[in-house]
Structures are given as C-alpha cells and as structure tokens.
Amino acid sequence: MEYVSPEGLRIDGRRPMEMRKLQAEIGVVAKADGSAVFEMGNTKVIAAVYGPREVQNRSQQLSDQALVRCEYSMANFSTGDRMRKPKGDRRSTEISLVIRQTMEACILTQLMPRSQIDIYVQVLQADGGTRSACINAATLALADAGIPMRDFVTSCSAGYLNSTPLLDLNYVEDSAGGPDVTVGILPKLDKVTLLQMDAKLPLDIFENVMQLAVEGCKAIADYIREVLSENTKQLEYRRGL
Amino acid sequence: MEQRLANTWRMTVNEKKFIESALLSGLRVDGRNVYDYRKLSINFGKEDGSAEVHLGQTRVMGFVTSQLVQPYRDRPNEGSLSIFTEFSPMADPSFEPGRPGEFAVELGRVIDRGLRESRAVDTESLCILAGKLVWAIRIDIHILDNGGNLVDAANVAALAALLTFRRPECSLGGENGQEVIVHPPEAREPLPLIIHHLPIAVTFAFFSDESTLVVDPTHQEEAVMAGRMTATLNTNGDICAIQKAGGEGVPQSVIMHCLRIAATKAADITVKIRDTVEAYNTERALRKIKRHSAPVALDVSGTGPNDWSCLWQSNIWTSY
C-alpha cells in the first residue's frame, strides 16, 4: 500500500514533515489540581493531576522526594472496536511506567518530600501517537497544577515508510508495520528523555528519523508555551490585574 | 531508580556516593572498563529449547514450547510468538509472586519487540493449514538471580532457547489433505525454527553526571543510576528496538554514540551465541549417532565368558 503518493502527499493529505493540528485546553477537570485536554489530529487525550498531597500508602513514602504515580488507560470507545480491557493489560502497564519515569525526570521531586503526585491520563480518541499526546497532556496538567518542573517534556512520533521519514504517524501509518520512533525531549535543555522504537531500521536512517521527531517535539513545545501564557493572561485578567 | 515495595533493599548513602564518585573517574566497582560486559556463559538443558544464561551474577532461564492453535483472524497464515516472564521472589526480594509487576511487563515487552516486530523469527513457516492450524511458539523466561541487567540476559536466554528449539514435523494427510498428522520425534526428526537474524539487547546506564555512562550495569549500579537505555540491534546494522523509558535526559549525540558502541557489543555477543549453539548442535547430533551405533568399547582385562556375553547383549541393543 502506498503511504506517500508520488506528489509527496500522505494518506490524510499532509506533507511528510507536517504535523497534525494541535489543540489544547487547560483546567477541564474542576476537582483536579491540574488538568488538560490535548489533541493531535484525531487523537484526543485528557490528563488530570492530583498533588502534591499526602501519601496514601505509608510504606511507599519517600523521605527525600515526592512519589510520582501514573495511570494510563484507554477509554472503551477510544478505538474503532470497543475495547474489552482498557487498563491492567500489558501495554497499559508499560505505558504507565514510561510516562511516570518521563515525568519524574522533569518534576523537581526534591522540593516535595513525603508527598505524592498522581497523574491520570485517559485516551478518549485513539488515532496513533497516543503515547506522545499523553505526555504532552501530562505536561500541561502539571503546569496547571503549579508543580515545579525542570522543563516541559514534549513528545512526538516519527516513522519511515516508502523510504521517506514521516512526522507524527496516524493509526493507519502506525499499523503499516514500519518503524515507529517516539521521542520525548526537554526542549530548553535539549535533552532526550524518552526514546522508544520498534521494527527494524538501519542506524543512519534512524538518526534522521530521530532528528525529525525532535524537531516535532520542539514545535509542540512552542505551542504548549503559547497555551500556557494565554492561560496565565486569562487568570490575570480574571483577578483584575 | 528504585523499586517501590516495602521490602526493597535500600542502598546506604555511603555506597551510593562511592559508586558515583568512582564512576566519575571511570572506575567501576567490579573492576571492569566502562564499556565491558561481564562474563557471559550459556548452558543448555536436556530438552531442546531450554537455555540457562549466566551474565556475571545474573542468571536467567529461557524455555521454548510450541502448540498447535487457531491463527488470529487478521493473520490466517502466520504462526504466533508470545513471551511470558516469571520474576520469582527467589531472584530478588522485591519481586512479588503472582501477577507480574511493571518491570516484568516492561522486560517482556522489550524482548517481544526485539523478536517479533523485527521479524527475527519467521512466522509464516509456522503455518500448517492456512486459517485453521498454526504453531504458537511460547517463550517462558524465568529470572533465577537478579545481579543486574536482566534485559540483556533474558534476551540471550530467549535467543539461545529459540535457536536450539525443535518443533515436531507435521504433514497433511487424510482424505482431502485437511487432516494434520504430527509426527513424534522418534519417527521423524523435529525441525528447527527459521530465524532470520539475532536481535541482541545492549543496556546502558546513565548517571547524574552527563558524561558518565556504563554498559551492562550490575545490581548496585542500577540502584544508583539516573536513567537506562536498552538498544536491540543485529549484526546487519539494523536497530530492532530501542527502549529509553524516561529517566535522566541525555543529548542526542550521546544516544548515537551509545548505538555505535551497542553495534560492536552486539557483534561479540552474536558470535558467542552462535558458537555455543553450534557446539550444542554438534553434540546433539553425536548423541543421536551413539544411540544407534555399534561398537561399545569393552574392557579386555575382564573375565573371559562375561566379556562375550556383554558383547552379544550390546549387539542386541544396537540392532533395534
């Protein structure tokens, strides 16, 4: 099947280096300390952050830093066919672990010892790149909750089909069996914190694909910064400043 | 990076500081170089498809079994490959019995990605009757001793077990060729799996100082490390999988540097695996020859009549 037409257009009409439309909203879950909805094309993810609060399980309390917990689940209606087991299966466990460790790298946990930060991420619509959308949503939710962070973590995926590196794969391109590289970076520090790849790819081509994904992450970081400064302006306005 | 359970072994601050400051000068606690692997040895069990790997103090066993099942609906002429991990509390007190914890799931998925998604094992040759019967290969990985770097050891165990596994030969028979006859190993020699390439996992540990990284971390180094990356590559120059699940951020240049080191390490480990497997195969073939072959060397210095009766007895055995 042809994923990149001879004119250079993908299945959904994008160019190979073009990302899907981004849309984000902050403060959607009123009860949570911080929350956000992040959309990348048709993929829609909601994240809620509770914390820092008292550790519920005393035996897990860490005396010198905050405990970060994360739970990833996909809603039953998020994919085409209704899912039978949205959480607790191996993929969800792995992605929960990945998101937790990624966010732990950027949260300044040393400032909040003996406390707990919970990150709940749920996929409402899945169309490829759910992992990346979850990390972006979690970053926004943590910023909304006012949790001190070293830097944002933004994430984007890239692939390689029909000998072309493609940015931000959707579900059809992802299930084509080609390589899928998901990268999460700390944009200001320019460091890679999350890197996952599956399927085969030669080393030199991998470098190009990773570079493309990093560029995508930086673009998302600009967008997130814009959303947060707009949100702060709104808060100032409401406070009468 | 610590495990989150009450009975986790916690390192003292002194030990942590010692390991970290030693690494700043490029020294590792067990005397290795920064990019050196521990001693890797692979032993095989009596049955085909079982392997035990020792990587320094880490011990992992891999078992491969097969079963005839119905194929998935969207892949009617492909067999399946599934990996199950067993983190026994015998290996590490922080492993709980019962449901696999997060690290067990992660390990299983990393090895699964390296083997399945990179098409190392040929699944189309596992099909017997398209849409009806295929072989499902199941790899069980048991962790016996956690001395650090379980992913690499488990990967080698899985590969060694896959390379020495033999599945029974089947043929189609019956009236319309739809009946499948599975031949027992005594009747027809079982067949090996078709493995296109060997994806080898190489794990790096990053520490809070940017320029420090080590290959094949031990249990102590894992307790001190700030981040970890596992790169699965084969000797054809392909990267099969990468897993860097968060942790300390590293620059892109460091990642490319790690991948290049991993390529050389993967070549060494591949050679080692292939040599051991070949030795096992030769020994296995020799074992078969001994079963059927004739002359049993006898001790000439024994008593007269008994000698002849023994020789007569051994002839009876060899003729069956």
UniProtKB/TrEMBL annotation, chain A:
This is Exosome complex component RRP41 homolog isoform X1. It is found in: Cytoplasm; Nucleus, Nucleolus. It comes from Rhodamnia argentea. InterPro entries: ExoRNase_PH_dom1, ExoRNase_PH_dom2, ExoRNase_PH_dom2_sf, PNPase/RNase_PH_dom_sf, Ribosomal_Su5_D2-typ_SF, RNase_PH. PANTHER family: EXOSOME COMPLEX COMPONENT, EXOSOME COMPLEX COMPONENT RRP41. GO terms for molecular function: RNA binding. Keywords: Cytoplasm, Exosome. One of its GO terms (cellular component) is nucleolus. CDD domains: RNase_PH_RRP41. Its main location: cytoplasm. It holds the Pfam family RNase_PH. The gene is LOC115751453. Residues 18-148, 151-216 form the Exoribonuclease phosphorolytic domain. Belongs to the RNase PH family.
Automatic annotation (TrEMBL), chain B:
It is found in: Cytoplasm; Nucleus. Pfam families: RNase_PH, RNase_PH_C. Residues 37-168, 197-263 form the Exoribonuclease phosphorolytic domain. GO terms for biological process: exonucleolytic trimming to generate mature 3'-end of 5.8S rRNA from tricistronic rRNA transcript (SSU-rRNA, 5.8S rRNA, LSU-rRNA); nuclear mRNA surveillance; nuclear polyadenylation-dependent rRNA catabolic process; rRNA catabolic process; TRAMP-dependent tRNA surveillance pathway; U1 snRNA 3'-end processing; U4 snRNA 3'-end processing; U5 snRNA 3'-end processing. InterPro entries: ExoRNase_PH_dom1 (IPR001247), ExoRNase_PH_dom2 (IPR015847), ExoRNase_PH_dom2_sf (IPR036345), Exosome_comp_Rrp42_subfam (IPR050590), PNPase/RNase_PH_dom_sf (IPR027408), Ribosomal_Su5_D2-typ_SF (IPR020568), Rrp45 (IPR033100). One of its GO terms (molecular function) is mRNA 3'-UTR AU-rich region binding. GO terms for cellular component: cytoplasmic exosome (RNase complex); nuclear exosome (RNase complex). The keyword Transferase does not apply. This is Protein ECERIFERUM 7. It comes from Rhodamnia argentea. The lineage of its organism: Eukaryota, Viridiplantae, Streptophyta, Embryophyta, Tracheophyta.
